[in-house]
Design a protein that fits this description.
The complex is a heterodimer of chains A (177) and B (169). By secondary structure, chain A is an alpha+beta fold. Helix content of chain A is 34%, strand content 25%. In chain A, strands 3-4-2-5 form a four-stranded antiparallel sheet, with helices on one face. Chain A is elongated. The C terminus of chain A is likely disordered. With 169 residues, chain B is of the alpha+beta class. Chain B is built from eight helices and six strands; from the N terminus they run H-H-H-E-H-E-H-E-E-H-E-E-H-H. The relative contact order of chain B is 0.13. The C terminus of chain B is likely disordered. Chains A and B meet through helix 1, helix 3, strand 1, helix 4 and strand 3 of A and helix 1, helix 2, helix 3, strand 1 and helix 4 of B. Strand 1 of chain A pairs antiparallel with strand 1 of chain B.
């Protein structure tokens, strides 16, 4: 996937990351703003972003909504113990469901932690969260040995995205892991 | 297009990504049949209300360094104290209380795996237990259309907005 057909300047990319990870100013031409800060041309900025995207270092340049502000106050981390040989296919299926914001395969840690598939759910009520979990359980069926859902009760720290205002977004929970 | 429909359209489309071309907002305005100024003013409104956390690049952090999801099982009476210590560690950048025996969940990041191990060792010392260490093995592709039908509903209900604000810290 990361075929390096178009290598980019890693030092410049690092400066771009530092400059933009907290967000871009809302101006008609954000690339020109980046170009001015980085002291390169606007074309170089666009080419750098495109190269980073092609090589998988940049997912997208996007508007990141705050799901919490949109009314999604309940966040449940569902965890599932599924057979390793089916985990990839099942993870892809869970990721397609509309309320799943993140879906990851992680190692088990036996005996205390038997779960390997993680799917993050968001809802406006606890009951809605329980319904969503039941949908996931129905989809996994007998492929899942056991499961649990860890509902977040409090956000204690969230600095990973360096958002400009002290808002919190459950939608980004554990995004960087 | 009225302001509310424009908001929903912009959230929906920009969540999936801005075009990497010159004047990306003008390109989106053309597609939606509105002016660039309307797009910018609408996005500014969404940012001011806190519905947009930011507009900017979403990097694949896994390629930029190392990270892991870690958890601790803390006695409820000590949770606040331990949580504060964990949050204060510079390698920790998300920290959530969750309802479970493992009740403190946090992301540890570092430039490489050795930095993660070192941070986890610090946390083990201050918490008096070894944290669960659950690094991502695979990330499944998410359809970014997540939640936007509902978002539109939330935006259209002023009473609900007030309720949300009331719940915020």
């Amino acid at each position: 996937m990361s075929s390096s057909t178009c290598p980019y300047d890693a030092a410049l990319a690092e400066r771009l990351v530092a400059l933009s990870e907290g967000g871009l100013p809302l101006v008609a031409n954000p690339w020109a703003w980046l170009a001015e800060q980085l002291k390169v041309s606007e074309e170089q900025v666009i080419a750098l972003l495109q190269a980073m995207q092609q090589q998988g270092a940049l997912r997208r340049v996007a508007a990141v909504p705050n799901h919490y502000r949109l009314g999604y106050l309940f966040n449940g981390m569902t965890v599932w113990d599924v057979a390793d040989e089916h985990a990839h296919a099942l993870g892809e299926q869970l990721a397609q469901l509309p309320n799943v914001s993140h879906c990851y395969l992680r190692p088990r840690h036996l005996p205390q932690w038997p779960y390997n598939l993680f799917a993050m759910l968001h809802a406006k009520s606890r009951a809605e969260l329980d319904n969503q979990r039941a949908e996931l359980a129905a989809l996994l069926g007998p492929a899942c040995q056991r499961s649990d859902m860890l509902v977040s009760s409090r956000i204690l720290k969230k600095t990973g995205l360096r958002t400009r205002r002290p808002a919190t977004s459950e939608g980004d929970s554990h995004a960087a892991s | 297009m009225d302001r509310h429909s424009l908001m929903c359209q912009l959230l929906d489309r920009f969540q999936k990504g801005l075009p990497l071309c010159a004047k990306p907002y003008a390109a989106m305005a053309d597609e939606l049949g509105v002016s660039e100024a309307e797009v910018l003013s609408c996005l500014a409104g969404l940012a001011d209300s806190g519905v947009l956390s930011r507009i900017g690049p979403v990097f694949e952090h896994r390629r930029a360094g190392a990270s892991t999801l870690a958890a601790l099982a803390i006695a409820p009476a000590e949770l606040d104290q331990v949580a504060a210590l964990v949050s204060a560690h510079p390698a920790v950048n998300h920290n959530y209380a969750r309802e479970h025996r493992y009740n403190l969940w946090f992301v540890v990041t570092g430039c490489d795996r050795a930095a993660i191990d070192s941070a986890l060792a610090d946390i083990a010392t201050l918490a008096g237990q070894t944290p669960l260490d659950l690094p991502m093995l695979e990330s499944f592709h998410i359809d970014l259309a997540f939640a936007l039908d509902h978002a539109a509903i939330a935006l259209s209900q002023p009473s609900h907005r007030a309720e949300v604000r009331a719940c915020l810290p």
